[in-house]
């Protein structure tokens, strides 16, 4: 895993959560982004992509990058920032609210990418693509910059154009918490984490 950087996307506007900085939402005494960081294997190169509260993220002792544009162009812009900043060949993208992921997420994604000669793979569970839990080759950087300049904002559509493939995680139990998009989901995650599920 020496050739992989884990980049945590924390640069969104948090619209569905009232505009709060999602990565800094506290869950049982730790922010969401801290929980994701602490779940990573020791020694893994890591990076946070954030556009607000940069000092708070920098205080976590992890390099922080920002989107190339100041107008919040969505997660693809955060992915571009990660690809531009990482020095490794591969970048594992994770959202800051993915607080319970499969233990073997990275190995399974990497195996599929290398076995099939792919530059991009992403997690899928029960037919639902988890496009922001993906493994990308840094060679995708220039092409992604071009599609963003043309106005593309949807990871799903970009993945379709580059031949990305899903990797099925429907077998994982307990079911991963891929993202938290509203106050009810945050509350449910708190309850589950407090139970140790």
Automatic annotation (TrEMBL):
<feature type="binding site">
    <location>
        <position position="22"/>
    </location>
    <ligand>
        <name>GTP</name>
    </ligand>
</feature>
<comment type="subunit">
    <text>Monomer.</text>
</comment>
<dbReference type="Pfam" id="PF12804">
    <property type="entry name" value="NTP_transf_3"/>
</dbReference>
<dbReference type="GO" id="GO:1902758">
    <property type="term" value="P:bis(molybdopterin guanine dinucleotide)molybdenum biosynthetic process"/>
</dbReference>
<dbReference type="InterPro" id="IPR025877">
    <property type="entry name" value="MobA-like_NTP_Trfase"/>
</dbReference>
<dbReference type="GO" id="GO:0005525">
    <property type="term" value="F:GTP binding"/>
</dbReference>
<comment type="similarity">
    <text>Belongs to the MobA family.</text>
</comment>
<dbReference type="GO" id="GO:0061603">
    <property type="term" value="F:molybdenum cofactor guanylyltransferase activity"/>
</dbReference>
<dbReference type="GO" id="GO:0046872">
    <property type="term" value="F:metal ion binding"/>
</dbReference>
<comment type="function">
    <text>Transfers a GMP moiety from GTP to Mo-molybdopterin (Mo-MPT) cofactor (Moco or molybdenum cofactor) to form Mo-molybdopterin guanine dinucleotide (Mo-MGD) cofactor.</text>
</comment>
<keyword id="KW-0342">GTP-binding</keyword>
<dbReference type="GO" id="GO:0005737">
    <property type="term" value="C:cytoplasm"/>
</dbReference>
<dbReference type="InterPro" id="IPR013482">
    <property type="entry name" value="Molybde_CF_guanTrfase"/>
</dbReference>
<keyword id="KW-0501">Molybdenum cofactor biosynthesis</keyword>
<feature type="binding site">
    <location>
        <position position="97"/>
    </location>
    <ligand>
        <name>Mg(2+)</name>
    </ligand>
</feature>
<keyword id="KW-0479">Metal-binding</keyword>
<feature type="binding site">
    <location>
        <position position="67"/>
    </location>
    <ligand>
        <name>GTP</name>
    </ligand>
</feature>
<keyword id="KW-0963">Cytoplasm</keyword>
<feature type="binding site">
    <location>
        <position position="97"/>
    </location>
    <ligand>
        <name>GTP</name>
    </ligand>
</feature>
<keyword id="KW-0460">Magnesium</keyword>
<dbReference type="InterPro" id="IPR029044">
    <property type="entry name" value="Nucleotide-diphossugar_trans"/>
</dbReference>
<feature type="binding site">
    <location>
        <begin position="9"/>
        <end position="11"/>
    </location>
    <ligand>
        <name>GTP</name>
    </ligand>
</feature>
<keyword id="KW-0808">Transferase</keyword>
<feature type="domain" description="MobA-like NTP transferase">
    <location>
        <begin position="7"/>
        <end position="160"/>
    </location>
</feature>
<protein>
    <recommendedName>
        <fullName>Molybdenum cofactor guanylyltransferase</fullName>
        <ecNumber>2.7.7.77</ecNumber>
    </recommendedName>
</protein>
<keyword id="KW-0547">Nucleotide-binding</keyword>
